[in-house]
Amino acid sequence: MDRPRIGIIVGTTRETRFGMAPAQWLERVASERTDLSAEIVDLRDFPMPFFDEPASNLHTPSRDPAARRWQATIDALDGYVFVVAEYNHSISGVLKNALDYASHEWHRKPAACLGYGSLGAARAVEHLRGIAVELQMAPLRHAVHIIGSDYRQLKRGEATFDQLDHLRSSADAMLDQLAWWATALRTAREQPREAETAA
Ligand SMILES: Cc1cc2nc3c(=O)[nH]c(=O)nc-3n(C[C@H](O)[C@H](O)[C@H](O)COP(=O)(O)O)c2cc1C
What we know:
6 helices; binds flavin mononucleotide; alpha/beta; Rossmann fold; globular; five-stranded parallel sheet
């Protein structure tokens, strides 16, 4: 069986964002593994307007071309790591918008989080887990939180990810779980669906 495909979704787009740095580190960590393949999905590549469709694409195909490309990208993946910043105790607006722009493409797939910020984006990650349940994902307990002085040192270039062994340990534990869930749920998605309840 092919390795499950995991999207590392960079959840911020502003010009001076930090978000790409942990995403690239995680992609490098994941590239050493044989039980999944991981690729960065950058929201900058999907410049979708604030949600402006007649309905969720669960009911009506989206008109916006970037949204349709986004939905196809999400659909092709078997699981996700959301790279989460905390904006006023929740996820960024651009990430919420992107979550809203897809529906069935998220269903029955695992969602892990890498949060960064003074508290490791802990409150934003909790919000995202709630949203993930509504989108019928399986949010994972294991996460990476880049907290406080680690976050500040990385941001200022005073430390590198490779110097922070505890981040590597939590990334490994999270990816272990993600590989298990992505493989299990992909197998389950391939089964006949007669027992399924309506979405
Ligand atoms: C509008 C805004 C709100 C923020 N709110 C919080 C917050 O509630 N908690 C927190 O820890 N950091 C907060 N921050 C700091 C961000 O977490 C930090 O700037 C982070 O680097 C943002 O991610 P980015 O650089 O990828 O955009 C906020 C930043 C912005 C721009």
